[in-house]
Write a structure and sequence with these properties.
Blueprint: H1 10-53, E1 135-138, E2 142-145, H2 165-178, H3 182-190, H4 198-224, E3 228-236, E4 243-250, E5 253-259, H5 264-271, E6 278-281, E7 293-296, H6 298-312, H7 318-335, H8 342-361, H9 367-378, H10 385-388, H11 397-413, H12 419-437, H13 442-450
Helix pairs in contact: 2-3, 2-4, 2-12, 2-13, 3-4, 4-12, 6-7, 6-9, 7-8
Length: 462
């Protein structure tokens, strides 16, 4: 039996109680943190389930990347109004008099005319031409054959029923400008009474592209003669991944090339050894070996700077912020170029170069800063090219805008299934985009090009 001296004292019990209270408090604090974490995870799980249930979830922009205060929809304030203009041609005129009240039959006073124009599509019906030509033998020239201005092919036999030039042009427009699939393009053509299968339409557009191939090659030659070319690339499919879609654009023309490589050989082949203009692009290494004047896109630079500033932290980001200010000042100087004296402009441009050199020539202890500035040191002599050439933009937005329709087409069709389809897409997409830039009708252009006995049209690239 223990004695009374073995019992814990009052002070010992108080100390033990305090320790237990502290332990309980720590455990309660841990429980509260875990419950809060569970609540956060349940909210994220619910958000993930909601996002997955949305129809367009894979293509949606994440909520944290959305603009918190989006711009007001519609055109900017002060933009010229837009309305339907009066038609230049009137096919039919009807007048509806008001001799009496249509409700009670009484007399009507103060009658005035109300003018309207109704533009509508007439009932669609194909225009069929039964064409009979003649063939014979010339003792001097050999076999000869008569031709018609509306003729698009000399095929006979099972292939004697042809789609006309305008029908082929409309099909090319639906497929390569509107972006419809072959199946949907066939459904639209059936509205006009033109029955054609998807395979038949694909073969027909292949023949259209073959006819337009010289115009495509001429467009490539014009690109090489342009004072500035904007280039970009993205992944593509030709029956399998591993292909690349290249775009070479000027303000007047767009050239698409689909190749199985992302190397500089594509750029060298398109621009040629004698290219004397400015090549505007991002900082991808494939553009480096090209022996020409270059400019690197400011939008890509600003994006890279923003990411690097966030990575290195505010304590070490001062030189990166200084570079960003210099690039912004260069764009501002370019905006007021026309209103400045040439000498004053040259002094401002030189000051920007010296300011940039001072930042790039220093060594910074923070490794992240050195890595971020390496991008600008490599392209030191390609940062202010647009300040020396009035017809060169600071960004590569033109190429990216011309690439966007192709990216949308890739999302819908994954590119091309065969190399023949790839060749068709290159020609028709390039000429269609160029017609849009030059405000020419792609349908009229293809129509004229498909007529056998008429001159082939050409598009200027610069």
């Amino acid at each position: 039996m223990k004695g009374q001296d073995d019992r814990p004292s009052y002070e010992q019990l108080r100390e033990e109680n305090r320790q237990l209270r502290r332990t309980v408090a720590r455990q309660q604090e841990m429980i509260d943190r875990l419950l809060g974490r569970v609540g956060e995870l349940e909210e994220k799980l619910q958000e993930a389930r909601t996002e997955a249930a949305r129809q367009a979830a894979p293509f949606r922009r994440p909520e944290h990347h959305r603009v918190q205060r989006p711009k007001r929809p519609g055109r900017k304030k002060g933009h010229p109004g837009c309305w339907r203009t009066e038609p230049e041609r009137i096919d039919q005129e009807r007048r509806v008099p008001l001799p009496c009240c249509p409700h009670c039959g009484g007399a009507v006073e103060g009658v005035r005319e109300i003018e309207q124009f109704i533009e509508d599509i007439p009932p669609m019906r194909t225009h069929v031409t039964h064409l009979v030509t003649e063939a014979g033998w010339c003792p001097h020239c050999g076999p000869v054959r008569s031709g018609d201005p509306e003729q698009v092919s000399e095929a006979v036999g099972c292939a004697k029923v042809h789609l006309g030039a305008r029908a082929l042009a409309l099909a090319a427009f639906l497929k390569h400008r509107i972006g419809l699939s072959y199946a949907k393009a066939c459904r639209v053509l059936r509205l006009f009474g033109l029955g054609v299968s998807r395979g038949g339409l694909a073969q027909a557009l292949g023949r259209v592209a073959a006819r337009l191939r010289p115009g495509y090659e001429a467009l490539a030659g014009g690109i090489r003669a342009a004072p500035a070319v904007y280039a970009d690339e993205t992944s593509w499919y030709v029956g399998r991944p591993g292909w690349w879609l290249w775009v070479f654009a000027t303000p007047q023309a767009t050239l698409y090339r689909v190749e199985a490589t992302r190397g500089s050989a594509v750029v060298d082949e398109v621009l040629g050894e004698a290219f004397g203009g400015v090549l505007v692009s991002d900082c991808m290494a494939s553009y480096g070996p090209i022996p020409c004047t270059k400019h690197k896109c400011y939008a890509h630079h600003q994006k890279a700077l923003a990411a690097s500033i966030e990575t290195v932290g505010a304590a070490h980001a001062a030189p990166l912020r200084e570079v960003r200010v210099i690039l912004q000042a260069a764009m501002a100087l370019n905006g007021v170029r026309a209103s400045m004296d040439r000498r004053h402009y040259a002094r401002r441009r030189g000051a920007l170069q010296r300011s940039l050199d001072r930042v790039l020539d220093r060594v910074y202890p923070a490794g992240g800063v050195e890595k971020a500035l390496g991008r600008f040191r490599r392209h030191r002599h390609e940062l202010f090219t647009f300040l020396d050439h009035a017809d060169v933009a600071a960004t590569n937005n033109l190429a990216e805008r011309q690439l966007r329709p192709a990216v949308i087409a890739r999302k819908l069709s994954c590119g091309n299934r065969t190399e023949r389809g790839k060749a068709t897409w290159e020609v028709l997409a390039s000429l269609g985009a160029t017609c849009a830039q030059q405000r020419r009708s792609f349908v009229d252009f293809v129509t004229q090009a498909m007529l056998l006995n008429r001159p082939t049209p050409r598009l200027q690239a610069a």
